[in-house]
Sequence to fold (222 residues):
Amino acid sequence: MKKKTMANEEVKLFGRWASPFSHRIQTALKLKGIPYEYIEEDLTNKSPQLLKYNPIHKKIPVLVHNGKPIVESLIILKYIDETWELFPLLPNDPWEKANALFWAIFIDEKLFRARKMALWGDEKESKEAMEETFECLRWLENELKVKKSKFFGGECIGFVDIVANGIGFWVGVQEEVTNKRMLVQERFPLLWDWAQDFVSCDAVKECLPPREKLLALYQARV
Ligand SMILES: N[C@@H](CCC(=O)N[C@@H](CS)C(=O)NCC(=O)O)C(=O)O
Fold:
């Protein structure tokens, strides 16, 4: 049974300012109006608490709800949605829900890998991966066309929109650093508009990392 936020609930988020995975959780908590304590992790020197709560992957984000850890951003998002009913992220209808989960996994597995290789791989890898990235973006463009809505979640942002934050914000910074264009407006007009709308949402905007700081981080990496 879904429950309302109780005053004595303790919610902690272990995250990293530059991480789109952390940003997903911050956005969801913001949309649902859940107060939480944010703990910034130094990923070059992980805290004993992070290693205790996520001993297998040793990654952020980790949500700790009343002392119980939840790891992996998609699982955390689903947990948040099932725990706090305000501002539902996943649809109620079982098929619609399965469809949203499909696209979320598609973004994380297929698109994320291709995008990463296209951006940071060697010349040959990057060329092939760029084609795969375009194909993935075409699928997402098509999904928006089929849905005929502003967001993947409908008229308000939902689960898939939050998961696609890498396309909504991070990709623009990465494109600037690597000089590789992915989200080209002429090729993906609906997705391009979606990205503008996505970053304009208050709950999204308020948790985004400062662009210049992120740019400097990627520039140092290149
Ligand atoms: N599949 C994970 C990915 C999380 C992830 O990659 N986190 C990175 C930061 S962006 C991390 O903690 N890296 C630390 C490491 O790999 O040692 C999720 O969805 O939560």
Observations:
- Residues 94-221 form a domain with the Glutathione S-transferase Yfyf (Class Pi); Chain A, domain 2 fold (CATH 1.20.1050.10).
- The pocket of glutathione is lined by residues 16, 19, 21, 43, 58-61, 72-74 (CB under 6 Å).
- The mean pLDDT is 96.
